[in-house]
Amino acid sequence: MRKSDPIETALNRLGELRTATPELVTGELRSYLGNRSNLVVAKAAKLSGELRVSELVPDLVAAFNRFMKNPQQLDKRCAALTEITAALYEMDCREAEVYLSGLRHIQKEASFGPSVDTAAVLRGMSAQGLVRTGHANALAEVVQILVDPEAHARLGAVRALASNGGDAGVLLLRLKALTGDAEIEVLGECFTGLLAAAPEQSLRFVARYIDDDDEAISEAAIWALGESRLRPAFEVLKEKWQRTAGRSCRKVLLAAMAASRLEEAIEFLRWLLETESPQTASDVVAALAIYKGNESIKQPVAAVVRGRGNKLLSEMFERHFEI
What we know:
This protein is an all-alpha fold. The chain has a domain at about 260-323. The chain is about 75% helix and about 0% strand. It has 20 helices and two strands. The protein has helices at about 5-15, 20-35, 40-50, 55-70, 70-75, 80-90, 95-105, 120-135, 140-145, 150-165, 165-180, 185-195, 200-205, 215-230, 230-240, 245-260, 265-275, 280-290, 295-310, 310-320; strands spanning about 110, 115. Strands 1-2 form a two-stranded antiparallel sheet. The mean pLDDT is about 95.
């Protein structure tokens, strides 16, 4: 009979702990956080954060420090350190030294091609945690991660500045947007962060990018405006719609307006569904599909589709709205 693998056994048990009593969960998670396997500790840390077991913060910090003594050997793929940091962030841990250590950590590991840095997500999460602590040098530390070679780290820095960076963070995000980024996801996160952190002063700044010559940048700005759920942002998108002819951009505009979840945006989309060509109306149906579980929106859309009696529209509605 095959001998049981202790790591596999521990991982399976951790999967069962979600439904256990709080007293049992805390005790067992504490034990697993002291495990030698980085995979076991990673899963225990993730569960600790999801369940927000704040009593385990000291154990998480101890585990972090243990792996950081020799992460290249003890924590392959940076699995444990990343999940521990994420859990500490979820539980609003204010241990600045943990985040500072994670922020500065680089872990190159072999791959099929060039070596890869497996600590990028860790640095990004550490940036978010450090800024939240209010550490005196937090922004000076995090601004360096804005130019990190790895996109995941830069994303974390952007989110850190947007959520807890204050006025200085907003200015740094503007600078990052102005200088650009090789990864459009990072630039899109800058737009999103600006609209969340300083909506009034950032609206016109982000709106400038919807006419950018780079289609990817334009789309990132459009999505950020839609997902901001700001009424003035919808007006910007509506104005862009009225002076845009290209179908690809129009489809993005429709999806962004639908994502805003604003009543006036939904009403505008219904009006387009009634009045535009079958091709455009079919794009509207696709954009509104995110509401297929919302009968108050689904039924009026169904009524318009039936009233138009167009085969293309009917097929699009069946494809996107029939659950």
